[in-house]
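A further point concerns the way the authors explain their paired sequence and structure data. The central task, working out the C-alpha cells from the amino acid sequence alone, is never made concrete. I therefore recommend that a typical entry be quoted early in the introduction. An entry of this sort, consisting of the sequence and the corresponding C-alpha cells, reads as follows:
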Amino acid sequence: MKIKIKKRILIVDDEEDLTWSISKGLLKDQNTFEVVCTNSGKSALNLLSKKKYDLLVTDIRMPGGNGLTLLKKAKDMFPSTKIIVMTAYGSSEIKDILDRTSTYGYIEKPFEFKDLRDLIFRFLNEKSNNGKHNLKTK
C-alpha cells in the first residue's frame, strides 16, 4: 500500500483575513495539503528555516519585510520550493523582477479563490520546475 505524503503550503500575507480565507478554502483538500499561514516575511523565514515547504504563496508588499527579500531567501534555502506571488500592485516591472528571481507563478489581487486553488493544484502536480505559470486576474 502506497502512503500519500501531504504537500506543505506556506501562505504569507499581512492581511489576516486573506490568509484565513485561503486556508479555510483549502480545508476541503486537507488530505492533500498541510497549510500553514503567517502574516509577515520575518515569520515566514522562521517557518522556512524549520521545515521544507513544497509551495510558498506570498504577497510582495508587506510591512516589516519586503516580499521580494522573502522570495530570494526562500529560493536560496530551498531551490525546489515553488512560489506563487499574490499582488495588488501588478506591473510589467514586477513580472520582470519575478522572472529574474525564478518565481513560478503570479496572480493579481483581487482574485477569485478558485483561480488561486487551480494554480496551486497545477504547481503541486507539476513534475518539473522549468515551467512558469502566470495567471492574471482582475
Q: What stands out?
A: Residues 127-138 have pLDDT under 50 and may be disordered. Residues 7-125 form a domain with the Rossmann fold fold (CATH 3.40.50.2300). The chain has one domain: 7-125.
